[in-house]
Structure formats: C-alpha cells, structure tokens
Specification:
The protein has six helices and 23 strands. It has about 475 residues and is of the alpha+beta class. It folds into three domains: about 120 residues, no CATH class; about 220 residues, Thrombin, subunit H (Beta Barrel), CATH 2.40.10; about 80 residues, PDZ domain (Pdz3 Domain, Roll), CATH 2.30.42. The chain has a six-stranded antiparallel beta barrel. Strand 1 and strand 2 form a beta hairpin. The radius of gyration is 35 Å and the shape is globular.
C-alpha cells in the first residue's frame, strides 16, 4: 500500500465535517461537482463558459415570436487568473501531519438537521444555473441530507380564493365585462360566420361591427350567445359601412347587463387595455395589452382606392384574431373605449376578421374604432334606424408633397360653402397634421356633423369649415 491509498489510513483518521468522508489523493472525496467538473488535486472546481442563443376586403396593408433574447453566462474566473492546485489541502483542523493528512481531532459534527442544509441549497442553485444553461452534467450532494424526504403531492391544497378581484386588474375587467359580451353567429345567402358584440341596453341593443352582420342584413339570421349559455335571435337595427359600426337587437331574453362606456378622446399611448371576444369561435376569450398608437388611419372594405371604411383607429397589441370583431376594447376600469375591428396580417390579402374577413392571425397589431365615434353612430341608428356620415363634400387624394389634395367639389357642400377649391392641399385640421387622404377622411368622419373645424392649407391659408352630415345608405 502507498501513502495515498485510502485503505492504508487509520480508521480513526479525521473525516470531512460535511460529507463524513476521509481525504483521498490530496483532496476531499465525494466531489460535489460531478464528473464534468471535478476539482484537480484538491483545487477549486473548473467551470467552462457555455454558449447560447377588419374588416372585409381590406387594403393589402391591413390583414390577419422571436428567438429568445435572454442569455446567461456560466461561472468564470476573472480575466488573467488561473486555478491553482493545492496539495496537501488546507487542513481545517490544525497543522498537517506527515503526508499531508490532518492529525488533530476534528470538532464534533453539527446537529443533524443543520448538517449541510445551507450548503446543499447553495449547490442546488449552482446546479440549476450552470447545468440548466450550459447543458453540462452537474453532480449534487447525497450525504448529509437533513430530515425525511418531502413530496408536494402530500401537501394539502391551499385555501380557496375568495373575495373580488383587485381593482384595476385584468381579472376585475373580465369579471365586469364578460356577462355583457356575446358571440354573434350569422348566416345568409353569401355564407356564414361569427363575430362578437356587447350589450349596450337592458332591452337588448347590441353594438358590433358592420362586417360581422352584413351577410345577414337582407333576410339572413343572427343568433346571440351569452356568457351563461343563453341564446337569442337578433335582427339588424341599422349599420354604417363607412365606419364599420352596426346595431342589432335581441328578443326573448331579460336581465341583460349593459357595459359601461368610457371615452376615447383622452386615451394615452402605453395605457393598459383588455379585449374580450370570440376568436376562432372560442367565446369569452380575454386578452390584454396596451394602447400602441392613436389616430391611426385604417382603410378597409370596398375596392382598391375606395374609402368605403376608413377608421381613425386605436391601435393595440392585445391579441385580436378573427372572431374578435365587434367585441369591446376596455380600459382597466372596465369601461369600453373601442370596438375591435381589424388586424394587420402580413400573410393575408385583407385586414378583417370575424364574418367575411381574412383568416390571418394576430401579430400584435390590432385596430379598434374609438368609442366616442361609435357611441354617436349607435345613438343615431337606434333613434332613426339610419346612420349619419360626417362629410365635407370633396373628392380627395394623396398630395405628392404630403397632405391631402382636394379634387372635385360637390355643389352646395360644406367644402364649397367654406371656399375650398379643387387642387387645395390640406395639411392640418385644427391641431392635427394631415399627411394623406386617408388621414383627412378619418379626421372628418370621427367628428360630429355641424362641428366647426379649421383647415390649414399648403399655401398657408386657413379655412373654417362647418362639417356636414348625410344619411348612409348601406350596400
């Protein structure tokens, strides 16, 4: 036997206070780092550095996750330093005897339940961070464990959740709004589909998108499905293709809960919002996000170049998919601030979802009709059965130098009365910059008839226009 042969050691030789093992080959036996990171000659373990990784018929611009950006580093010595082997190892008990083995009597081992609990936890943490990231083999202590094994399956269930959801949470918004959101199943001569809507009165009026219900507008069928499973037939009261707003009314059901309408003129980019609807017929789906942008001109519907539907949209990154159309976009007080209507989907040729729209999926760019505009249109529809469109009475196109160039002016129109001429280029309405024809159309349609607006022209002139209103004839 040689001096370093463990079998030559005196049985009474001291043992490691944590593992209970005797030293071998100049270091402590029971390597806690595993076969891939064994200390050399009693030195510190060696680590290696791992390596890592809306409406139907929309304009092609409107329709329908990146690699993990996080990385981590394994443990690593500071630049320029190297590991040093130590033989014999530093003696924790006193001066070493001949051959490098301790001869002093070791202290009494600590209490069993504290014999390495903290050390074990520390090594387990290193194993998770280094092993999980680098993919290497990491060992762990098996000796000196404290107490019997525990099993999460044996633990009792936690107390059941009680009380209301915290105010201002997504949960509270969902609890408040979900009973008022309905799935609309529609069918007609041109096909069938589904979308969403929400109750705005106890007597059954429901606000939704025009493109959700238009297929059933002329003799088709609409069925509203409520959160509690109730189903009711519905009929179109009125609709406005130019703003993609429609009102339907259900019959035969009572105790309806209307939503609380908020306001959209004071929305802020970055504020949190919640969307509720029936994407891909998954009724009652709740998603959340933020207001990504405001006053986003979104053209959808009609043939190319036709502003049949131009929305002054609220843009959001809350997940919106086909079937969300007509559902509410709400603030964190549970007040509806928009109607989800369109999504941007680069894989498809159009931007709608819901009835008749594209089947593109969510890419984090959705558009909602501002509730201030929807409220005014819905109120007019309920009172008169017909929507009224705000207009100036002029054709318009994109100006080469930026802005919106006016074309033919309708006789007797608000534009003519204000003195606007064909060829005038509008660059601003009140304080809002106008950079395209769609921006001008959206800015006009979001305002009320008889409202006054100051038009700033490219030549520096300003013209005050009293906006007009005309009944909308649905197609």
């Amino acid at each position: 036997m040689t001096e370093n042969d463990p079998s030559a050691h005196d049985p009474a030789a001291p043992r490691h206070p944590e593992t209970g093992q005797q030293p071998a080959q100049g270091g402590w036996a029971g390597n806690p780092y595993g076969e891939q990171a064994q200390p050399e000659s009693g030195g510190a373990p060696q680590y290696s550095e791992p390596s890592y990784h809306a409406v139907t018929g929309a304009d092609p611009a409107y329709g329908g996750q990146p690699a993990n950006p996080w990385s981590a580093q394994g443990a690593q010595l500071p630049s320029g330093q190297t590991q040093q082997s130590v033989y014999p190892p530093p003696n924790p008990y006193g001066q070493p005897a001949t051959g490098g083995y301790p001869v002093a009597t070791p202290p009494a081992p600590p209490a069993p339940k504290r014999s390495g609990g903290k050390l074990l936890a520390g090594v387990a943490l290193v194993a998770l961070l280094v092993g999980g990231i680098a993919g290497g083999t990491v060992g762990y202590f098996t000796a000196g464990s404290s107490g019997p094994a525990s099993n999460a399956l044996d633990a009792p269930k936690p107390a059941q959740q009680t009380g209301n959801a915290p105010a201002g949470s997504v949960e509270s918004v969902a609890q408040k709004l979900s009973p008022s959101v309905v799935e609309l199943q529609v069918s007609g001569q041109q096909g069938a589909g589904e979308g969403s809507g929400f109750v705005i009165s106890t007597d059954g009026y429901i606000l939704t998108n025009n493109h959700v219900v238009e297929v059933a507008a002329n003799g088709g069928q609409i069925r509203a499905v409520f959160q509690d499973g109730k189903k009711a037939a519905a009929k179109v009261v009125g609709r406005d293709p130019t703003t993609d707003i429609a009102v339907v009314k259900v019959s035969g059901v009572g105790n309806l809960t209307p939503v609380e309408l908020g306001r959209s003129d004071d929305l802020r980019v970055g504020q949190s919002v919640v969307a509720i609807g029936s994407p891909f017929e998954l009724a009652g789906t709740v998603t959340s996000g933020i207001v990504s942008s405001l006053h986003r001109p979104v053209r959808a519907g009609g043939s190319s170049g036709d502003q049949t539907t131009v929305m002054d949209a609220v843009q959001t990154d809350a997940a919106i998919n086909p079937g969300n159309s007509g559902g509410p976009l709400a603030n964190m007080a549970g007040q509806v601030i928009g109607i989800n209507s369109a999504i941007y989907s680069p894989q498809s040729a159009s931007g709608g979802q819901g009835q008749g729209g594209s089947e593109g999926g969510n890419v984090g760019i959705g558009f909602a009709i501002p509730i201030d505009q929807a409220r005014r249109t819905a109120d007019t529809i309920i009172k008169t059965g017909q929507a009224v469109q705000t207009y100036i009475g002029a054709q318009v196109k994109d100006a080469q130098q930026g802005g919106a160039e006016l074309g033919a002016i309708t006789a007797g129109s608000p534009a003519e009365k204000a003195g606007l001429k064909a060829g005038d280029v509008v660059t601003k309405i009140d304080d809002r910059p106008i950079d395209s024809a769609d921006t001008l159309v959206a800015a006009v349609r979001t305002r009320a008839p008889d409202e006054k607006a100051t038009f700033t022209l490219a030549d520096g002139r300003t013209v005050e226009v009293t906006l007009g209103g005309q009944p909308v004839q649905p197609n």
